[in-house]
Design goal:
The complex is a heterodimer.
Chain A (H helix, E strand, L loop, with lengths): L1 H23 L8 H27 L4 H22 L15 H13 L1 H7 L7 H16 L22 H9 L9 H26 L5 H8 L2 H7 L5 H21 L2 H15 L3 H19 L6 H14 L1 H10 L19 H15 L7 H11 L11 H19 L8 H28 L16
Chain B lengths: L2 H4 L4 H32 L15 H4 L4 E5 L8 H14 L3 E4 L6 E4 L4 H10 L2 E6 L5 E5 L2
Classes of the chains: A mainly alpha, B alpha/beta.
Chain lengths: 462, 143
Amino acid sequence: MTLILTYLPYLISFLIGYLFILLLDDPKKRLPLSIHLFLASGIGLGISSQITFFSFAFWGELNRAFVIALNVISMTGLLVGAIVKTRGRPGQLINLSHMSLANAWPYAVLILCSYPLWNHGHFYVFGGWDAWATWNLKSKMMFLSPDGWSTIFDPILWRSSPHYPLQLPMTNLWGWIFMETPEHIIPVTNAFVFSFSTVGLLLAGLIHVTRSRFSVLCATLLLFSSMFVKLSLSQYADIVVAYYLLAALICVLMTKMSGQRVFAVLAGVSLGFLSFSKGEGFIAAGIIFCLTPLYLLWKHQPTKKTFVYIYGAGAVASIVTILFSALFSPESETFINGLMSDTHPVSFYRVKAILSFILVEMISPTWNGLWIVLVAGLILSSGRCFSSKSIIFPGFLLGYIGVISVYYFVNTYFDDSRILWWLQVSLHRLMYATLPSVVFWTFHSLWQLPTPSQEKTPNHDD
Amino acid sequence: MNLRSFLPPYRRQLFYLTALFGVSMMNLIVLSQDIRRIQSFKKVLPYQMIGYQFNGLDEFTKDISHIGYYTDLDIETDTAASKMFAHAQYMLAPSILDLNNTDHDYILFVCSNEKVAWQKIKEVKALPLRRNKYGMILARRLP
């Protein structure tokens, strides 16, 4: 019984995500099952998490009846909609058209290679420092405190960054919804689900756009990286950022490639959820929101509806972020604008520290050469990494690195004597959150080379 | 079976795949060491514990909204002390721990040695309520 109650919220969320995508899908051009499944897990959890937020927004505490009822109603409503759409043919609920043993083996490898994620996660059940000091602490307080979520906004708790968005804590609370005590299995499961879905989505997305089963090497690249495994299971919000960032970029790319409504809506939804995942997620979502029209219009003629779907879905999915930022989130206690401060002014030393640290982190032995291989892949793509299809990735990364560098430069709460420490404890996590997207970009760029039969002149490559 | 048809069409793709495979294998060696280490830990502990030093105190603190947390260590410079404070806060949540504020009715004393804790308890005129086996003392200030 305990086991059922532990995993029941995940089943409900998964069904919500799955049926939501099914309703958006074009029956004549169905999404591949793998992409559908890996998007369903994260989108479903995102929806349940946002429903949980409204319980706190309305009542200031976890109203279990409201959260359970709204999730069950959403699931039932979507199920009825799916049955109507498929005219009661259960076979239409799952797209098995691409399923064969030859197509399934990369996913079998994915499952096998995910053993370390499972094994490590179920040993380090409390996660890393920021899990017990920030993310899980907030979840536990909101779950147990008689004063509801006002406890987490107490100024005494400034070390836990009360201004941070609450996507991950809300997901933890949803996981505990059928429990009396905040069991550690839920944050463990959340970290595993997001990590597994991120790598799964990377693999499914790459197979879909490149048709190469060698994409499986991108999955093993991440799953065998001890740094990736460690950070994935630290129960930090960075894995949530990594997932929604990858989902948003893949969906924007697929919107341009296929023009399908489902991708446009999911791009908007992913961006909305990304904005509620962490401060960095908010910045990332903002940059992609701004770049998307330029990307879609470059060498392409999207319909007006495409923009309506992306920005309409994005606006709805960002309501929670807007409400939280405008009404509930306290001011950051760890920000000093160095451009305006006399006591903590900015200095040129910070520029040198930031730029050199980015380069040092890329060649750091902790990554075991991972970033070097990715840069090599981009060089080997001979400029195709900047093609009209791929340009959203470098565009986003440049913008993101720029904004983050400016933030490191301007925020002199961590003055010159502490900026190296700050970079040391935070930069690798920022890079980690972008890693799946960079892996996708690199592999996709290299597989955009024309097939030899398409070449105009022989031996033009290599 | 024609091996060439299985391989990617471009040498640069093949080169990249080889590099990906190489890094994956290098990472696998490191990861397998981690897995072995965890397996050996699991023989002693089913999972890693944190904050066990505060076991048994939560049943006394669960209804207290704010608790002073006194330590003679500097948590800004001492990482272990800082970690201990974070563990205490997590284990005793939803009570809020107020670092080195002894004005609260209830105070948790987490000191480098118990002598220091008892001295401070006397100094702030508090009455010890509970001491666990790890030497953590929960005290209440006398009115």
